[in-house]
Amino acid sequence: MKINRMRMLLLASFTSVIMGCSSLGGSSNSNLGDTHFYSLVALSPTNPTENNKLRVGIGPVEIPRLLNRPQMVSRKNNTEILMAEKHQWGGSYKEELVQALTDNFSNLLNTENIEKFPWKHSFKPKYHVRINIERFDGELGKSATLKARWRLFKDNQEIKVKQSLIKIAMKSASYNSYVKAQSEALAKLSKEVAESIK
Questions:
Q1: DSSP assignment of the chain
Q2: Within this chain, do residues 143 and 67 fall inside the same structural domain, yes or no?
């Protein structure tokens, strides 16, 4: 009887340990679900008319290595960088950025004849723009800052070189507001380039 009682006590203790471990595992798994993922937003089409004769090439687009990571990067101040483990890009940051620019140019210039670098050998763009993004960050609750140098080519001849510095005020201190401000900054840069093409 004593042996059976001892076995029952050991079994109960073992079961409680297993249950405790599984509940710990469950809580750590729930923490994984706390990560939020974001995507840049392109301009909405305004004119359905397509200019099929206009061919535009986008790229190369260069970004600082600091930004090319899953975590969202912001600034605490002029010298301190913040990387948010719980707020990340849904895909490759550079691909997100280049796709948003491509969609913006397509909507602003009313053409589907837009290719990202490197484009097919058969694609002969009338214009193409090279963009070197030097800074694209900001302070939460304040503003998003985009600093970029771009070169516009027409028939492979450079026709314009410009440095753009764009600041977009944020409506709140949330990361959602930060992404919206960054999307607006990209839209403003796209408009500057599109005006030069028009």
A1: -HHHHHHHHHHHHHHHHHHHHHHHHHHHHHHHTT-EEE---PPPP------TT--EEEEEEE--GGGSSSEEEEESSSS-EEEEEEEEESS-HHHHHHHHHHHHHHHHHT-S-EEESSPPTT---SEEEEEEEEEEEEETTTEEEEEEEEEEEETTEEEEEEEEEEEEE-SSSSHHHHHHHHHHHHHHHHHHHHHHH-
A2: yes
